[in-house]
Amino acid sequence: MNDTAPTPVPSPAATETLSGGAGAVSTALRTPTPTTAKRLRPRGGAWLATLPLLIFFAIGFGLPAIAIAIGAFTTSDDSPGGGGTFTLSNITDSVQGAYWTALLGSIKLAALTALIGTIVGLPLAQAIATSRFRLVREFVRSGSGVLANFGGVPLAFMFVATLGNAGEVTQKLDLTKHGWSLYSFTGLSVVYLYFLIPLMILTITPALEGLRVQWREAAANNGATTLQYWRHVGLPILLPSLLGGYILLFGSAFAAYATAAAMVGASVPLISLQISNALSGNVLVGQGNLALALGLDMIVIAVLVMAIYLPLQRRSAKWLA
Amino acid sequence: MSRLRVWRGFVLLLAGIYFAVPLAASVLFSVDNPMTKTWSLRAYTQLLGAPGFTDSLRLSLELAVVTVAILLLLLVPAMVATRLGAPKLRPVLELICSIPLVVPVVALTTGIIGVLRWGPDYLSNTPLFQTILAIQNPTFPVVLVIAYVLMALPFAYRAIDAGLGAVDVKTLVEAARSCGASFPRAVFSVVVPNLRTSLLNASALTVALVLGEYTTASILGFTPFTVWIASNGKNDGQMSVAVSILSLMIVWIVLLLISAVGRERRSRKSAAS
After folding, report:
1. According to the model, what pLDDT value does residue A316 have?
2. In this predicted structure, what is the pLDDT of residue A226?
């Protein structure tokens, strides 16, 4: 799960329970009356029990966030003018030259692989959801749960063994002669799809199961072909879920680090790799805070992505509830 | 209709090939010896003796156990409390537990490094400096536990929230209290057992996350299991592929077991009602 791995996804079991919980949650919220709440409250107030988590979050997440916010806008300690003075140069440097290329590279890779993942994942999920064999569905569901969480280092090594320079498939089919290289943009895309497609299947399956059989029957009764049903009924209803899934895949591919780091090193420019480079001190003197600015760039893009995703998710939930 | 069935079979077959080939090729690669054209299980048998294997695996397991313990200790009381007496804090809790999802792990790690750098820079004469050193102790890096708890928060929160939604916590506690149980007893011997499945889910997701995590550990310079696999892979490609296959299998088995446990409980529940 990784980590960098692709965004971890709740296991199939977790997602199942998840959908069941939503209704009960709202009823539990509606019922509380002030009197019972007061009587049930442990000594010291219930909010005391939330205090450890709040403090932990403030320290564990708040301090790093402050470090990024301060560091990205101040000069590094090893800079000629001394550290700690306000500057915009970290930010402007972080969107120039090699860093800009890496940022664009990450966005390009994430956008492309998420698109392929969405286009391939949808018919696949539909084929599985309508399969007559329960065993197939169970197997694919658990398999998707594993593979969607299975980014990172093991994935990189498996693909090196398969399609790397000395990989089994590369050797058998003599792919190197045909210009194949795993350590390229294309190679990385193929690897990313290995966890992005299962992620799409996990994400879109509940929406597909929410499509009522009656809608299809109604369309058929009115003389619609299968194609027309999908064109005018199925896809429009699925669109918010599909876009939401795309965004999720994009975020997952954009944040990924371990697979690329273990596999390609620096041959494909990616922002996450540049950050770790900058952190390990491979930058010019006086640019120690550049890594923090790069981190800030990444967060800004991730926040934008989520700002699109969350409303979409709410909309699709409304339709398919 | 039958055309549709053929099409579906074709799609599934194609996908099956795409997902099976790397698995099969990796297994082949891990037992194949291209020099002598023979097969051997060397990569698997020599694993236990490989330098650093047991140490890194033990570190990963310890990190996983401590992370799960801290995560549950922080999250469960807070979530139960917001259901019972502080519903206004619920949106706050939800927000807090969703934020880590938005921040890429690499970016969080840069922030952590930024904080750790404050130690030598500003705090050298204060006791805080000792704290910053202590949490970076390579034999047990507490700083990783902090990062992992943060990363696991969204998933654990959702799993536990689903569990809490399925049981009526308020009524349970009320009933236990009127039977004379103290408040902590009501929570620990009545509410927590009812959450068993979702706590198990949350723990399993967290364990899988910690065992697979690479970014933070490698950038901060610690060597839990995944970092060891990555560095060892440069010396012994076969062995690293063997470990990768094993780790995939372990995660799969764990997830299958958990969904089996969950299903069994659910079917027993529905049979009783």
Report:
1. 66
2. 82
Helix axis angle, A290-320 to A271-279, nearest 10°: 140
The letter for the amino acid at A83 is G
Interface check A261 vs B, CB under 8 A: yes
Of A281, A284, A272, A304, residue with least CA distance to A109: A272
Residue with token string 């969950």: B262
What pLDDT does residue B59 have?
A: 92
Contact B220, B112 (CB under 8 A): yes
Q: Do B15 and A197 touch (CB under 8 A)?
A: yes
Would you state the structure tokens that stand for residue B74, as one six-digit string? 């922080």
Confidence of residue A81 (pLDDT cuts 50, 70, 90): low
CA distance B235 to B231: 8
Query: How far is residue B212 CA from its own chain's centroid?
Result: 8
Specify the higher pLDDT residue, B153 or A236.
Answer: B153
Q: DSSP for B122-134?
A: H-TTSHHHHHHHH
Of A22, A64, A150, the CB nearest to B115: A64
Smallest Cα distance from B91 to chain A, Å: 12
Q: Write out pLDDT tens, residues B205-254.
A: 888 888 888 989 988 989 998 888 888 877 777 888 888 888 888 777 77
CB within 8 Å of chain B, chain A residues 84-113: none
The CA distances from residue A271 to A130, A190, A256, in Å, are 40, 19, 10
- Of B150, B147, B55, B156, which Cα lies nearest the Cα of B99? B150
Residue type, B242: A
* B16, two tokens: 């099956």
Q: Is the distance from CB of A257 to CB of A276 less than 8 angstroms? A: yes
Tell me how far apart the alpha carbons of residues A125 and A7 are, in angstroms, rounded to a whole number. Answer: 19
Alpha helices, DSSP H only, in chain B?
Answer: 2-31, 42-45, 53-84, 90-102, 105-122, 127-134, 142-166, 169-178, 183-186, 192-194, 196-212, 215-220, 225-233, 237-272
**Tens-digit pLDDT profile for residues B172-213:** 888 888 888 887 788 888 888 888 888 888 888 888 888 888
CB A145 within 8 A of CB A12: yes
Instruction: Evaluate whether B225 touches A257 at the Cβ level (below 8 Å).
Output: no
pLDDT over 90 at B144, yes or no: yes
| Span A222-246, average pLDDT | 85
Strands (E), A50-92: none
- Which two three-digit tokens encode residue B8? 């579906």
Provide the pLDDT for residue A296.
92
- Token digits of residue A188: 């990385």
Rounded (10°) CA dihedral B83, B89, B92, B98: -10
Element (H, E) at A116: helix A97-129
The answer to whether A55 contacts chain B (CB < 8 Å) is no
Given a contact cutoff of 8 angstroms between Cβ atoms, the answer to whether B131 and B119 are in contact is: no
- Rounded distance, CA B227 to CA A156, Å? 13
Q: Which of residues 175-214 of B touch A (CB under 8 A)?
A: 177, 183-184, 197-198, 201-202, 204-205, 208-209, 212-214
Query: Touching check for A309 and chain B: CB below 8 Å?
Result: no
